[in-house]
Structures are given as structure tokens and as C-alpha cells.
Amino acid sequence: MKCANAVIYLSRHDGRQTRFHSYLYPMLWAASNSFANVRDLSAHGDYRSVYVVARGVVEGCVNILYLMVSGDDVLEQAVQHALQRTYRRQNYEHAIGSSRVQVQRVGKDGEPPQLPQVVLDAIAEFSTKQGREIREWTAAPLTSRMETIGEVLGDRVLQSLHIAYDAVYRDSSEIIHGTLFGALFAMGWTEPRGNWSHDEANAFVNGHLFFVLMAVAAAFRETIAECARDLGNDRLAEICRAVGSQHLEALGRILDTREGNG
User: Fold this and answer.
1) In whole angstroms, what is the distance from residue 224 CA to residue 240 CA?
2) pLDDT tier at 258 (50, 70, 90 boundaries)?
3) Which of 93, 96, 167, 170 could connect to 215 by a Cys-Cys bridge, CB 3.0–4.6 Å?
4) pLDDT in tens, 235-245
5) pLDDT class for 176, splitting at 50, 70, 90?
6) Contact criterion met (CB below 8 Å) for 171 and 48
7) What is the Cα–Cα distance from 217 to 214, expressed in whole angstroms?
8) For the chain, which residues make up each domain, given as ranges?
9) How far, in Å, CA of 162 to CA of 149, rounded?
């Protein structure tokens, strides 16, 4: 079963809808959409963009599972963060040197709308004492969230997330921030093995791209399996885990090969 189809199936066949599950489906859809983009971008050889979008898939999977294993307080924190960001993205002021940008939403009367108390509370929760916005939705770093997930869901889930994180995270940061390394890396020019020909550089890029796709696919399927299990759909969970096992075994062989050649 394709990942996108599994997400649609879950949204239509859930046996125990909870507040968490009502937010689960938009997050699963977002991860599924990004994963489909990773697949399509890789088919067109867009190496740089694959890394950028793949990072969103990995972080999305981590956040989904972290919300699943955490308490209601963490879920409420995520909801409050989304609420205040909805307001703040339409109302902000930013200055860099002599340049100033201001965005403000106004009503038909030309005046800013009155904010309900729930929005004011959310803004206060994600503001410093000086009134500056707190950008992160949780104070727990990504790796800490992964550790918490592993403690609850086990080593298999943690391993799939960890491998995907290792495959994309550091290099995607370089690409996103437009560094020289990020530009060279996407062209296969950062391997310390002397001067490579164009064909050799392309072979390196394509080989690493395959590893990224395998790693992200394994993490996403494991995430769907856990969501299915949480919703009581054991059959779908078994299907995802069976495919996920094949991915993890293949990734293990790739990692062994990389270490042997290092």
C-alpha cells in the first residue's frame, strides 16, 4: 500500500477519534505530501530540493510520534503555538538596519480586529518578557523528542527516525542556508577522494540520493504503522512494518558498505 493511500485510509477508518487524532490527519497529510514531492524531485534529479523537503518529512514524523507519546499538555502547547502563529504571520513588524517591514491585518473599517482572549493567551504563552516571539513550538530539541519516542515505542521506531535524521539533517542545513559547502555537496564535489570526473560525481550523488530516499521512506512507513496501531488498525500496521523491515535491512547493508569504504 502506498504511503499516501495509507494516510487516506486511516482518515476514513479510524475507530477511536480523539482530540489528538483530529490534529493527526493534517500532520500526516503534510508529511505524505512532502514525501511524494521527495520522490518526484529525485526522479528529476533535483538533489538539493530533495534534501530540503526530506528534512520536513523527518521532522514531521518526529513531531507526530512525539505528540502521540506525550501528554495532553504537549498537545495543547502545539495547538497554542499554531493559534498564535496564525495571528502573528498576518501582524508583525521587522527591521534590519534602515529597512523596515510591517504587516497588519485590518477589517473593513480599516482597524485591526479585536482578538478573542484565547488568541491573546496563546500570544502571551509564546512571548518573552520583552514581548518578543518564541519561535519554537516546544523547548525540547529534535533529538530529545526522538529519545522520548524511543523510550515509549521502542528501538525499532527510534532507529528508523535516527537513520533518516542522520541521512538528511546536517547536509540539508547547509543547502537551506546557501553555504559554499551546500552548493559543492549537491554537485558531488565534497568527497575527500581526489578529483572526480563528472560521471563519478554523478554516481556519488545518485548513490547518496538512493540512501536518503530509503531512509526517509522507512521513517515515514514506521510513523504510519504507529498511527495505525494507535487507531486500532493492526492489519495496516502489520503491512507497514513488513515493508519497513525490508527498508531497515537494506539501510543496514548500505551503512555497513559505507563504513567499510570509509
Assistant:
1) 7
2) very low
3) 167
4) 766 766 665 55
5) very high
6) no
7) 5
8) 3-75+140-261, 76-125
9) 11
pTM over 0.85: no
With beta carbons less than 8 A apart as the criterion, state whether 67 and 20 touch: yes
**165, 142 contact by CB (below 8 A):** yes
Residue 130 has pLDDT above 70, yes or no: yes
Q: Which residues pair with 96 in a beta bridge?
A: 99
**Cα-to-chain-centroid distance, residue 240:** 19
How far from chain centre, in Å, is Cα 55?
5
Q: With beta carbons less than 8 A apart as the criterion, state whether 216 and 160 touch.
A: no
Whole-number Cα distances in Å, 43 to 36, 137, 253, 255: 11, 33, 23, 23
Give the residue among 159, 125, 121 at the shortest CA–CA distance from 139.
Answer: 125
Q: What angle do CA 23, 104, 109 make, to 5 degrees?
A: 105
Q: What are phi and psi of 128, to 5 degrees?
A: -75, 175
The span from the CA of 170 to the CA of 253, in Å, is 22
Least confident residue range of 53-57, 105-109, 115-119: 105-109
Confidence (pLDDT) at 91: 80
